[in-house]
Each structure stands twice: as C-alpha cells, then as structure tokens.
Amino acid sequence: MAICQMEGSGLGSARFTKMAVSFLIAFFLLYMLSLVYRSSTFDLIGGFSRAIGTGEMAGNDTGASVSEDKRSSQPERVAVDKLLGGLLAAGFDEESCIFISAADLTLNPYNRTLEELSSGHVNGTTDCSYVVWTPANGLGNRIISMASSFLYALLTNRVLLVDLGSDMAGVFCEPFPNTSWLLPVDFPLSNQFYGLRSGNDHSYGHLLWKNNMNISAVSQPPPFLYLYLSYNYDDYDKLFYKDQNQGFLQNVPWLILKSDQYFAPYLFLIPSFQEELGQIIS
Ligand SMILES: *[C@@H]1O[C@H](CO)[C@@H](O)[C@H](O)[C@H]1NC(C)=O
Ligand SMILES: *[C@@H]1O[C@H](CO)[C@@H](O)[C@H](O)[C@H]1NC(C)=O
Ligand SMILES: *[C@@H]1O[C@H](CO)[C@@H](O)[C@H](O)[C@H]1NC(C)=O
Ligand SMILES: *[C@@H]1O[C@H](CO)[C@@H](O)[C@H](O)[C@H]1NC(C)=O
Ligand SMILES: *[C@@H]1O[C@H](CO)[C@@H](O)[C@H](O)[C@H]1NC(C)=O
User: Fold this and answer.
1) Do the beta carbons of residue 226 and residue 256 sit within 8 Å?
2) What parts of the sequence cross the membrane (predicted)?
C-alpha cells in the first residue's frame, strides 16, 4: 500500500517535478538503447554467426573477445552504471521512481491485485493498477512501444511491468538497482500473451464492439483487459484513443498491452491527458 501511494501521488504533478519526469522519459529511451547496444551487439553477432553457420571460428573468437571486454571494463562499468554514465545527478533519489522493488513485488499490492484476477471481479479495494507490456515484433518495435507504455503508465498512475519472455532475457537490464520491472514468471495470464491479437474476447476493442461502442453500458469493470495497439489493429481497438473511453479503464486493475508502435503521439490527442502531458513534456 505504502509503495503504491508513493508511486501514485509521487508521479502526479505535486511531488515529481516536471523536469524529473520529462528527464525520466528521455533517459529511459536512451538508457534502454545503451543497454541494448552494450549487452547485445557482441552476443547477437556471435549468436548470428553461429545460427547461420559461419563456422566455429567466428563463434570462438566472439566469445573470447566478449569475456575479455567484460573483464577489463568491469570496475569502470560499476562506477559508471551507478549514475548511469553521468545521466543522473549525484543526488538522484531512486526511491521516488516508478519501479517497484523486487521485494515489494511479493508483498501485498501485487498479490491483492492478482486476487481480483483469479476471483474474476473487481473489488475496488486495490491500491495499485498495472500496465503489463508484452513484446511484439522486432527489437526496435519493442523499444518504442515500451517507451510509449511507460508514458501511458505515468499518465494513468499505473505500475509498468514488462514481460520480456525468453528471447529477450539479458537484452534489457533492470533500470534501477534493487528494483524489478519484470512481470513475475507465474503471472496467471502469461501463457495467453503469445496468441493475443485483434478481436480477442478480452480486448477493449471487443468489449466496445459488444456494447455498440457505448462503454457506459458496461456496469461492472473486468479485472483485466487487453489493449491491442499493433499496426494491424481494427477500428474497435482504435477506440482506445477516444477520450470518453479512457475513464472506464481507470477501474480496470490489469491492462495487458501489446503494441509494436510508437503510440506516444496519440496520447497527446486525448484531451484528459493534455494537462499532465503539458507538465511532463514542456
Ligand atoms: C571452439 O571452441 C570449442 C569448445 O571450446 C573447441 O572444441 C573448438 O576446438 C574451438 N574451435 C576453434 C576453431 O578454435
Ligand atoms: C505474493 O505472490 C508471490 C508470487 O506468486 C509469492 O511468492 C508471495 O509469497 C506472495 N506473497 C504474499 C504475501 O502472499
Ligand atoms: C474484497 O477485498 C476484501 C479485502 O481484500 C476481501 O476481504 C473481500 O472478500 C473482497 N470481496 C470480494 C467480493 O471479492
Ligand atoms: C540492494 O539490496 C542489498 C540487499 O538487500 C543492499 O545491501 C544494497 O545496499 C541495496 N542497494 C541499493 C543501491 O539500494
Ligand atoms: C449508453 O448506455 C447508457 C447506459 O445503458 C445509456 O443511458 C445511454 O443512453 C447510452 N448512450 C447511447 C448513445 O446509446
């Protein structure tokens, strides 16, 4: 509870300064890019050469140079990483960030919100709501949709959790020390993510379609909804961007988001976000 209130109000305009939040978004993108670059170029090259069978030589060479590179730069990297290579000011207060600590994840807010998922209806007593980002398409698509989801989480006071799956393990590091933004592996809906596509029975688009696009006809919010925002989404999925459809989502504790797009600009078209966006990015 404490952790969520910290996140919720901390991300509103009051306690978080404009500067800090806009910085966070810019930094988030930059940092992820740098991590991708640092941790995966060599591995990707090595893996790639092995995968296309360019011979053992290439694989062995790459392996050797990676471990050498890691060993020689390790002490430097620890110092550099603490302040993220100078991106953060020395007094940066990581407590005030959106990310939850790994220990807190196993404590009440997450579990209680999870209970709503298993009970099948929203209790209204949970303190936290979540955006669960799921991967779609290539690495570039994933980075831009992840950054957009981060902005959406900020705007809606949600906690962002990411499902990196197995193919991206090790590509992204944890953004902050002692915190985790990884979706716990035993998350009940994880096995459905892969097949998630437009028109899914549990998608917001489908719910709107079923109710003739009149969301106020839905009395009971579901414990979770899929937001399908990939390039091939249908007209009903797109209704997510209509201002009058955003309010309903506030009562849905779990939003499972799948997108391969940089959808952040669309968020600027939603009038109810504009004030907060103005404070975040100005
Ligand atoms: C590559 O490494 C493997 C295992 O370490 C070794 O058996 C093999 O001889 C190496 N190949 C070359 C070309 O160095
Ligand atoms: C919360 O859920 C996690 C993961 O399922 C579990 O490991 C942990 O023990 C739970 N904590 C509580 C307080 O129930
Ligand atoms: C609502 O949540 C409270 C506290 O977690 C719990 O005691 C109660 O049984 C829940 N009610 C329903 C209908 O799930
Ligand atoms: C991370 O957690 C460990 C163990 O709980 C603690 O010793 C360490 O100081 C923490 N580091 C930071 C940066 O909070
Ligand atoms: C939407 O549904 C609500 C509640 O059922 C109803 O009062 C309202 O008239 C409907 N609006 C339209 C445009 O159909």
Assistant:
1) yes
2) 19-37
Q: What is the pLDDT of residue 66?
A: 36
Determine the longest span between alpha carbons in the chain, in angstroms.
65
**Residue carrying the six token digits 């398409």:** 137
Q: Where are the beta strands (DSSP E) in the chain?
A: 100-101, 130-134, 159-162, 179-180, 224-228, 254-258
For β-strands 254-258 and 224-228, DSSP reports them as parallel
Ligand 1 center to residue 14 CA distance, Å?
59
pLDDT tens sequence across 151-200: 999 999 999 999 987 788 778 878 767 778 888 888 888 888 877 888 88
Nearest C-alpha to atom 2 of ligand 5 is from which residue?
Answer: 217
39 and 173 in contact (C-beta within 8 Å)? yes
What's the pLDDT at 134? 94
Cα 218 from Cα 201, distance rounded (Å): 15
**Cα separation of 66 and 166, whole Å?**
21
Residue spans of the chain under pLDDT 70: 1-108, 124-126, 176, 282
